[in-house]
Amino acid sequence: MNWLTNWSPSWQWFHRLGSPRWFYQTTGRWLPWLSLLALALLGTGLVWGLGFAPQDAKQGNSFRIIYLHVPASFLALAGYYIMAIAGAVGLIWKMKLSYMVMKSAAPIGAVLTFLALFTGAVWGKPTWGTYWVWDARITSMLILLFLYLGVLALQYAFQSNEAGNKASAILALVGTVNIPIIYKSVDWWYTLHQPATIKLTSAPSMHPDMFQPLLVMILGFYCFYVVALFLFTRAEILRRERKTTWVKELVLGEPQS
Amino acid sequence: MHPLRKQRLQQVILIVVAATVVVGLVVYMLGQNANYFYTPSQIAAGESPKGVFIRAGGMVVEGSVERAPDSLDVQFSVTDGASILVIQHSGILPDLFDEGEAAIAAGIVDENLVLQATEVLAKHDEKYTPPEVADAMNQAYERKQEQKQEQKQEYKQKQQGAQ
What we know:
The complex is a heterodimer of chains A (257) and B (163). By secondary structure, chain A is an all-alpha fold.
């Protein structure tokens, strides 16, 4: 690992990234643009998907809930990796900011997972004929919700932030094994849930007129996720760094040096 | 990388690998037990438990749906391509239930190997198409089938002519 130590000047960006103050100021500049982008994408995607995309030959208009269901599920899975990686960086580099990102990702992920399960249930009733079944896909998704809630609960289960951070990070890392299981569950087992429509390896099994608004919605959800993660993390920075001079100055409105 | 951080990186990797191995083994041992339903072939081969509540799934055979004129009783067959399972049910079927589409029925297989279902669910595929496109595709498919039929007949006539 000599090359890593010789490389030390280039690690500066990494350590600067770990500064809550730098993160707070930089994201403050990005947030308006990101929010605007998220709003534009979500607005376009929703109007396009719900209003103008053709209805499905078999399911009629009820298929349109896909424009919420799939993006929410995407981010529920992707957000878990963000939470787990933030936890790992926190464990390895003892980086305070990383733990704050991890803690912030938990409630957002939990809400997205709940949204995926809820829209799935609402969609299931008119198509499958039931709100809920205990098949491999739906059950593994419910476990994901409990993992998110578990990470969140562990944060508050300890007196010290440090212990809570470590416990949360370890649970987040252990839970990563569930993500590929959720993803592959429809291929490994017979499930009521249909296999994936959008795959990396092949063209989507969806008409382009329906797929384009879905893609816009997925991009919109990604932007929305980043905005939400920034907002939650900024609030957490202010809470945990409340004793530092820069936060005091920021909150009291005194001129910053 | 600082040796201490390297050590902690190794611990993190160990946690992920250990969790993956443990859960991977559990998933592997679960194997087919985590299936939501049995296929008609599995039931025909006696792989499903008898006399207990099970689920069976497959494609509803074209032309197999028979409804009683005076009640909600319905009988249909599902297939996985290899075997056929007859299902009897009394109740309202889901909107998406149709011949040529997949369905899952839950109930008990009786001594005649007929599934007496208490619940029937429609399973839909991962394909989404606008109605016009679906119509066009069906028409194209029918035209192609007609062409094939014509070609077959022509071929037969030619063969008969040759004889």
